[in-house]
Amino acid sequence: MLKVGIVGSTGRVGSLLIDDLIDHSKAQIGSVHVFDELKKVIPDNTVVTNDMKTMLDNCDVVIDFSAPVATQDLLETVIKNNIKKPLVIATTGFNEHQKNLLLEASKITPILYATNMSLGVAVLNKLVSIASKVLEDFDCEIVEQHHRYKVDSPSGTALTLAEHAATARGLELDKVRVSGRDGVIGARTKDEIGVMSLRGGDIVGRHTAGFYNDGEFIELNHTATARNTFSRGAIRAAIWLSNQEIGLYSINDCLGL
């Protein structure tokens, strides 16, 4: 039975991850990292700690649904101690330093990094790449919707979709992304890719990639209706990653897309 260490256990998805692992046929909770108080009921033999190395020492693979500061602690601990435990990381909102830590840690241990752990979003990324390349003269706009408590914007999933759209057209996303329009800004430029955010209520997550031209348009949508879509996808990824060589992987690698 694969022992899973959890970072972000007190968060929304982390809590569901605990529930999904309790009755799982191939994986179980090995250790849990907490910053404050864990209010969930967990198996008696689970190691609960606020020390990242202790958490790593008591599991076979880590699933991280936390915040950038916690993921940074995780990656720095892996690098400092040369710990070869596979990491499934689903945290978003990284700065450049944290992205570099991710790359450095992937030279030590297998890491699967995905801004969204759902099968549907993985397929959506693939479809966006195809549509963006074939419909290269169409205007590309991406809209994401999330609950009122989401702290980063645009969502990591939306930025990943935009990256796929830009790459398919031979563009650098940082040079063409527009994430706000206000006032008299002039006509839309040919290459720009709009990535816009809506926040409200309890929306789990909805992403729309639209391609618009004179006379026609196409919109590709994905809607998450339950958060355990992400927790179950992460468990699947962890089981797969536990048998991989050192390196940096995506959810597409796990799903064979």
Task: Provide the fold topology.
Elements: E1 2-7, H1 12-22, E2 27-33, E3 47-49, H2 52-57, E4 61-64, H3 68-81, E5 87-89, H4 96-105, E6 110-113, H5 119-134, E7 139-146, H6 156-168, H7 173-176, E8 177-178, E9 193-199, E10 205-213, E11 216-224, H8 228-241, E12 247-249, H9 251-255
Parallel strand pairs: 1-2, 1-4, 2-3, 4-5, 5-6, 6-12, 7-9, 8-9
Antiparallel strand pairs: 7-10, 10-11
Helix pairs in contact: 1-8, 3-4, 5-6
Describe the model:
36% of the residues lie in helices and 25% in strands. It is built from nine helices and twelve strands. α1 (12-22) packs across α8, α3 packs parallel to α4 (96-105) and α5 (119-134) packs parallel to α6. It is elongated, with a radius of gyration of 19 Å.
Task: Give me a quick take on this structure.
The chain contains 9 helices and 12 strands. It has 257 residues and is α/β, with parallel strands linked by helices. It has a 7-stranded parallel beta sheet with strand order 3-2-1-4-5-6-12, sandwiched between helices. The protein has a 5-stranded mixed beta sheet with strand order 8-9-7-10-11.
